Amino acid sequence: MKRIIADHFDHLLGKETIKSRTLRFFGIGESALNDRLADLIRTARNPSVAPYAELAEVRLRLTAKALDEQVALDMLDALEQQVLAEVGSHFYGYGEMSLPEVVLDRCREAGLTLSAAESLTGGAFASGLTDIQGASDVFRGSAVVYADAAKVNVLGVPQTLLDEQTAVSGDVAVAMAEGARKLYQTDLAIALTGEAGPTSNSGQAVGTVYCALAHSGGTEVLELTYPAFDRGMIRLRSVKDAYFMLLQNISLADEMNKK
């Protein structure tokens, strides 16, 4: 009885524990996420849910209040599970960690090394990783092969393939990724090629991008389209999509690497 009374007075005096947790999502806009979580956002009071939008990303801040710290944490756990049940395929991390930071951490945990081959992004993929201290224990390097001749001479992309399909094609992205993996002797290699505009040199529509990921089990390629973006935004979004593609495949690559 005394404990109940004490808790009551603690509540009146505002002696609550407040705990917050930030969940990070990629590849879903704020409006789409809000639609998927509409009922939860509308009804949640304690813990509460607050969305914050970034480029191709959304952060959700969950906040719980309770008289006991563990109770507040349990409340956050329960709400997080509800959120992830709806939009878990877009979730990539917590707090202030960026996509490249999470990529490096996941590769490090799996013991995987990484390299890249970049055409339209001109080294931006590598830059995002090397901005982070300690990246060299995972990331080995990136070949910036902007011209077709560089793709042939540095990565061994067949000239006939470039002649037949142009540099903006899934097969060229695959050849670039496999060439980078061989060049840098890494477990994983990502390649990016596409049309950043403002005009097209390949015949492909501006905003068409191919992202390929090579690992010991083979090479996967993803076709991306950004029809409404300008040159800078196409490049930036391509880099983020490449990071997210890596995150979605690191577990598979780790399994293949151990076979």
Question: Can you lay out the helices and strands and say which pair or pack?
Answer:
Elements: H1 2-12, E1 17-26, H2 30-36, H3 38-43, E2 48-54, E3 57-66, H4 69-87, E4 91-94, H5 99-110, E5 114-118, H6 124-130, E6 139-144, H7 148-155, H8 159-165, H9 170-184, E7 188-194, E8 208-215, E9 218-225, H10 231-258
Helix pairs in contact: 5-10
Order of strands, widest sheet:
6-5-7-8-9
Number of strands: 9
| Helical content class | 40-55%
Sheet with the most strands, sense and barrel status: 5 strands, mixed
Low-confidence stretches: 1-13
Report strand %. Answer: 25-35%
The shape is: elongated
Q: Give the SSE order as H and E letters.
A: HEHHEEHEHEHEHHHEEEH
Backbone CA Rg: 23 Å
Helix-and-strand structural type: alpha+beta
Number of discrete helical segments: 10
